[in-house]
Specification:
Layout: H1 8-12, E1 22-27, E2 30-40, E3 51-57, E4 59-63, E5 68-72, E6 76-79, E7 86-100
Antiparallel strand pairs: 1-2, 2-7, 3-6, 3-7, 4-5, 4-7
Length: 121
């Protein structure tokens, strides 16, 4: 039986780059990813999957073309598949993403903020 636990705060100490999700666990075909964000991301969507944002530390907002949602520590939000959105954090924010394996952080938008996929810490 596998009994190693994962300490989320210790995992956050292992990287400092922004907008580059790091995988910490998998459950079936889903990955749990940690990411530090600061500033504005790119407009994008994920055509085939929902995306879960859980704020571990700090605060952020997710902008949509017609409104936005603000998230604080301990809050989460599910962006439905196909909905264009842009994450933003005025100050550093630490979040967990839950999404299927192989999902690009920028969806089909691409660009220089596209992170390497499947990086484990």
């Amino acid at each position: 039986m596998f009994v190693d636990k994962i300490n989320i705060q210790e995992k956050f100490l292992k990287f400092s780059d922004y907008w580059s999700p790091k995988v910490i666990a998998e459950m079936s075909d889903y990955q749990f990813k940690l990411v530090k964000i600061k500033g504005k991301f790119t407009w994008h969507d994920h055509k085939d999957t929902d995306e879960v944002f859980i704020v571990i530390e700090g605060c952020m907002r997710i902008e949509f073309r017609d409104n936005q949602v603000e998230l604080r520590e301990g809050e989460m939000f599910v962006v439905p598949k196909g909905v264009e959105h842009k994450p933003v954090a005025d100050d550093e924010c630490k979040i967990m993403l839950i999404e299927p394996r192989g999902v690009a952080n920028t969806g089909d938008a691409g660009g220089q903020l596209t992170a390497d996929d499947n990086i484990w810490i």
